[in-house]
Amino acid sequence: MKPQLEINQLQYRWPGGERTLTVPKLTLAAGERAMLRGASGSGKSTLLNLVSGVLAPDQGQLSLLGKELSQLSAGQRDRLRADAMGIVFQQFNLLPFLSVRENILLPLKFAPERRKRVKDGHAEVHRLLAAMELDAKLCDRKVTELSVGQQQRVAVARALIGSPALILADEPTSALDPVARDRFMDLLAAQCREAGSALLLVSHDPDLARVVDSEYLLSVHDQGTEVLPC
Ligand SMILES: Nc1ncnc2c1ncn2[C@@H]1O[C@H](COP(=O)(O)OP(=O)(O)OP(=O)(O)O)[C@@H](O)[C@H]1O
């Protein structure tokens, strides 16, 4: 089976041109969970932005579900990403003027394959809320009326809807205390397992290593950062 995500000999030059992020090899099989670890400023968010398509690499290969992104048109790339990836951003990026239900359903508007997998959107929202231990009564509330921890779990439900092949999560536990963090990571890992989604997790926190299969370290040197398995 093809990996969900495969990166080979990737290079990205940060603006200014002096420092480079290099990824010799990073692969993620279906259902596999990996963590990117590195000091502040080492390039963790930059690597997630390369995978999610916010940034483009200067060299090397990056393929999703066996498709090399540089060989697709911009429209094909956007569609593949919307279908293949659910993203949990550091600041959640929930839309404040929408309800919890509308936020969770939003990715389906742009992802036809994910939409096909969801037979009944409202039932799926309720299932995901229950799976993330959120009260169904929150469904019609504005997301701004929720606590930070609740918003974090809504952001995960939104990433998971329609079972994308890959979930990207940037520091998803940074606002949580250790007990809430462990519970949240167990819920996230269980839901990825149930959906068959691979997980690429960014964190400073070495305690999250217990829920992943592999770890990559962002190692900083004079010319930039190299991403190596550890
Ligand atoms: N637009 C930009 N132009 C120039 N340099 C940038 C730009 N964005 C980020 N950088 C630099 O790239 C490096 C990596 O930043 P990045 O945000 O990817 O690190 P990080 O590991 O995610 O950090 P943190 O853990 O603090 O979130 C930093 O040195 C940062 O100053």
What does it look like?
This is Putative ABC transport system ATP-binding protein. It comes from Ferrimonas marina. It holds the Pfam family ABC_tran. Residues 5-230 form the ABC transporter domain. The protein is 32% helix and 26% strand. It is an alpha/beta fold and 230 residues long. The protein has one domain (32-54, 73-215): Rossmann fold (3-Layer(aba) Sandwich). A ten-stranded mixed sheet has the order 5-4-1-2-10-9-3-8-7-6, with helices on both faces. Strand 7, helix 7 (178-195) and strand 8 (198-202) form a beta-alpha-beta unit. Helix 6 (148-160) runs parallel beside helix 7 (178-195). The protein is globular, with a radius of gyration of 17 Å. It starts with a strand and ends with a strand. The model has no long low-confidence stretch (mean pLDDT 93). The structure holds adenosine-5'-triphosphate. Adenosine-5'-triphosphate (ATP) binds next to helix 1.
Describe, in short, the structure shown.
This protein is of the alpha/beta class. It has helices at residues 44-52, 74-84, 100-105, 112-117, 121-131, 148-160, 178-195; strands at residues 5-13, 20-28, 33-37, 59-64, 67-68, 85-88, 166-170, 198-202, 214-221, 224-229.
Number of domains: 1
Main β-sheet, spatial strand arrangement: 5-4-1-2-10-9-3-8-7-6
CATH 2nd-level architecture: 3-Layer(aba) Sandwich
CA(first)-CA(last) distance: 24 Å
CATH topology heading: Rossmann fold
Sequence stretches where pLDDT stays below 50 over 5 or more residues:
none
The rough form would be described as: globular
Q: Can you summarize the main beta sheet?
A: 10 strands, mixed
Structural class: alpha/beta
What are the distinct ligands in this entry? Answer: adenosine-5'-triphosphate
Whole-angstrom Rg: 17 Å
| Number of distinct beta strands | 10
Per CATH, the class reads Alpha Beta
Helix and strand run: EEEHEEHEHHHHEHEEE
> What is the strand content?
25-35%
Q: Could you tell me the mean pLDDT? A: 93
Number of helices: 7
CATH superfamily: P-loop containing nucleotide triphosphate hydrolases
Helix content: 25-40%
Domain ABC transporter: 5-230
GO molecular function: ATP binding; ATP hydrolysis activity; transmembrane transporter activity
Keywords: ATP-binding, Nucleotide-binding, Transport
GO cellular component, one term: plasma membrane
